[in-house]
Amino acid sequence: MASANSIVNDKEAFQCILEISNLLNTGLDEKTLSCCVRLCEEGVTPEALALVVKELRRQVSSTQSNSSINNNSTLS
């Protein structure tokens, strides 16, 4: 079981990571960033994780664009 000091240190470290993420305008919310950190701690390569995040964002953007186009065409 983690000690109280370890928990406090982990929270402080995460707050620093969150602040850096915000300064770099990554667009990652706290929950998503936490998942990314945990994946890295489990051995996922950060570069591979970054590529997955970029691809997911690209797909979401593409889906939203297609949805917007479809909505506009049905209104015409």
Model description:
With 76 residues, this protein is mainly α. The chain has a domain at 9-58. The protein has helices at 4-23, 30-41, 46-75. The model has no long low-confidence stretch (mean pLDDT 90).
Blueprint of the fold:
Elements: H1 4-23, H2 30-41, H3 46-75
Describe this protein with a few key phrases:
mainly alpha, about 80 residues
Total strands: 0
**Share of helix, binned:** over 70%
**Structural class of the secondary structure composition?**
mainly alpha
First-to-last CA distance: 61 Å
Q: Main β-sheet: number of strands, strand sense, barrel status? A: none
Overall geometric form = elongated
Average pLDDT, to the nearest integer? 90
SS element count, helices = 3
Proportion of β residues? under 5%
Rg from Cα = 18 Å
Low-pLDDT residue spans: none
Order of helices and strands: HHH
Organism: Diaphorina citri (Asian citrus psyllid)
Protein name: Mitotic-spindle organizing protein 1-like
Keywords: Cytoplasm, Cytoskeleton
InterPro entries: MZT1
